[in-house]
Amino acid sequence: MDAVREVSPRSRFYQSSTSEIFGLATTSPQNEETPVAPANPYAAAKVCHAAKAIRAGRQRELWLGDLDVTRDWGFAGDSVYAMWRMLQQAKPADYIIGTGVSHTVRELCDLAFRRVGLDYREHVKQDPAFMRPGQPSRLVADPSRARQELGWQATTGFEALVAMMVDGAPGGWVESFTGVPDDFRRPPQGKVEEREKIP
Q: β-strands 124-126, 62-64: how paired?
């Protein structure tokens, strides 16, 4: 910030933070006035990578903690567009970006494993050792200010997001892109012969 102030005071600075900054939020959904109380992040990509690895026979099971905590998962492309919209404003402000809809880790597992033709209940195991003390149970955005002031709203639903994450995970791509928006009906970049196609 000092560098911006001293070298290029007319520049616009964007600061991004995860929803985990709200930690054990006392209100839901969270908005720009919600007190900040940081907690640890949860890696959704782990589930998608594991589903692909188990389907390919490179892994047998996935051990997780609480499957019933919820998060407001959104598409990075939607978030980046929100960032751009923020930087077009004449005055800086805080905005909560999200879909406004929360889903459990269990739902994430179900969609990810079904995407590769598996039942998550046969492969996902819970271990009390992975239960996080003080884990926020329900984080969900209230993006109303972004909608009103930026003209922004999420365009990618949860099912489409999980499909894209699984399809883009290492180990190949799924030939069927059912449920993914037309704009994203494309395989990852690279030579076709280098990809492992999953039947």
A: parallel
Task: Give the pairing type, strands 103-104 and 70-71.
Answer: antiparallel
Active site residues: 18, 20, 42
Would you call 178 exposed, middle or buried from its count of C-beta atoms within 10 A (0-12, 13-18, 19+)? Answer: exposed
Pick from 159, 43, 57, 58: nearest CA to 112: 159
Task: Sketch out the chain's domains with CATH numbers.
Answer: 2-173 (3.90.25.10)
SS3 150: helix
User: Using one digit for the tens of pLDDT, what is the confidence trace for 36-93?
Assistant: 445 554 456 788 889 999 999 999 999 888 888 888 889 988 988 998 999 899 988 9
Q: What is the DSSP string of 21-44?
A: GG-S-SSSSB-TTSPP-------H
Output 24-31 pairs: Cβ under 8 A, ≥24 positions apart: 24/134, 24/136, 25/136, 25/138, 25/139, 28/138, 28/139, 28/140, 29/72, 29/98, 29/100, 29/140, 29/141, 29/142, 30/96, 30/139, 30/140, 30/141, 30/142, 31/96, 31/141, 31/142, 31/144, 31/145
pTM of the model: 0.66
